[in-house]
Automatic annotation (TrEMBL):
Topological type in the membrane: Multi-pass membrane protein
UniProt-recorded name of the protein: Autophagy-related protein 9
Coiled coil (residue ranges): none
Protein task: Phospholipid scramblase involved in autophagy. Cycles between the preautophagosomal structure/phagophore assembly site (PAS) and the cytoplasmic vesicle pool and supplies membrane for the growing autophagosome. Lipid scramblase activity plays a key role in preautophagosomal structure/phagophore assembly by distributing the phospholipids that arrive through ATG2 from the cytoplasmic to the luminal leaflet of the bilayer, thereby driving autophagosomal membrane expansion.
GO cellular component, one term: phagophore assembly site membrane
Major place of residence: membrane
Keywords attached to this entry: Autophagy, Lipid transport, Membrane, Transmembrane, Transmembrane helix, Transport
Organism phylogeny: Eukaryota, Viridiplantae, Streptophyta, Embryophyta, Tracheophyta
GO biological process, one term: lipid transport
Family, per entry: Belongs to the ATG9 family.
Amino acid sequence: MMSFRSKDAHAQTRLNWPWRSQSPLSAQLLVDIPPEIELSDYRRLPSSRSESPSGLLHDEGVKEEPIPDLDIFFERLYEYFCAKGLRCIITKWIIEILNVLFMVCCIGFFFLFVDWDTLIHLKCGVEALESGEKPCDLMKAIKHDPLVPFTLPKMITVGSMVIMTAYGLTNFLKFFVQLRSTLNVRQFYYDRLKVNDLEIQTISWPKIIEKVVLLQKSQKLCVVRDLSEHDIIMRIMRKENYLIGMVNKGILSFPIHSCVPGAGPTGSHEHGRRNYLILPKSLEWTLNWCIFQSMFDSKFCVRKEFLTSPDVLRKRLIFVGIAMLILSPCLVIFPLVYVILRHAEEIYNHPSTASSRRWSNLSRWIFREYNEVDHFFRHRMNNSAVHSLNYLKQFPTPLVSIMAKFVSFVSGGLAGALIIIGFVGESILEGHIFGRNLLWYTIVFGTIAAISRKVVADELQVFDPEGAMCLAVHQTHYMPKRWRGKENSELVRREFETLFPYTIIMLLEEMASIFITPYLLISEVPKTSQYM
């Protein structure tokens, strides 16, 4: 097992780390033989098409439709809790639509309407006065016929705008489709759980589950058997548990090079060759659409044909991979524009954020426990970030640190000198050196100084990689056997860093994954379809 959830009793005693008991679903997902039965222990009554009788969520005197499926109902119950009420749901929906509209407008404006050649050579301000030209007119950099001539880059841009618009329209319609069920869940919170939208913003999730279990005893949400807290969570986490099991079993480890963007720790060995785990966002989305959207039937049981006909899944994966390969030039524009809109201003005002770290998408599925709901998991990951960063600081690079100190000293000194000059005379910063004004140099030197300072090793850092790793593991719950006793080795540091990369590196890897995912879907993932 590559997970921290191991049965090594000696290691458990020696490290004295908390262990969690495996659920029945956990044990089933980790066996070598694929499951041949449904993942649910619940059966509907033969004489009914629903687990809940009519009038279950309302007073006995009111005739209402029963809950069609408790799995979907509990999922939406949790989603409503995370969204913190109907007003937040509506506001979030409106903001998402506006965000999509804003991104489509930005893609169209900057990639189609702006004439970048004209804009670069446009002279404004003091530069225009010195050259004797008229003040610049920015409208000269706007194309009046943006689609003429209709070149390949413009076709890709238009294609990305069409895909983004279709995505926004789908979310727009999806909200109205789910609005009725959302209102039913809201009524359930108000009438049965006695929790209004104001209270849901501060109440804890265990308290909500406790209320649901007490309600089950009096009104029988499930007529087949009583529901416990564990039963409800298993229903909510049904799909996520399956993906956690795929990662833990090494099904998503492929014979790729360790330098492939997004490649994580070693997952398995086949024919003397190492397989590396990889799960970028794009691959997760495609697996969710190809597998989990068609894996379960209306009763949330695994379809028989899904187990007996792996060729159907293999063909679906290849088809989606080919379609994604064709659309990849259009799809890569989305993360590119998002990175610019989301992080450009942050990096400009706080350059040190470029050297910050965050957990990769793969690490979130490696570290996640079975039946661990999302907001508890995010809380655990946020708590682990400080300890994980401290562990990576246990491996200083003296040569890089020495050079970073010099760069920081020189660039910071030049930026400070230019700021002092600005206080003496503000107009002096408008002077030009090598075609650039002094204000431009001030910004560049300040940015270089801020980034280089983050690279310099802390002189007060205490070297204790074993202790730092122990603190990190208490939160991540991940400690492969190959890491134990080797916390100060370069191998462990390198694998740990793939799970906790620099933010800018992770963003670039997500953009590169749009081209890597089609290759995986066409050539590698179909080979493992029989194990899914």
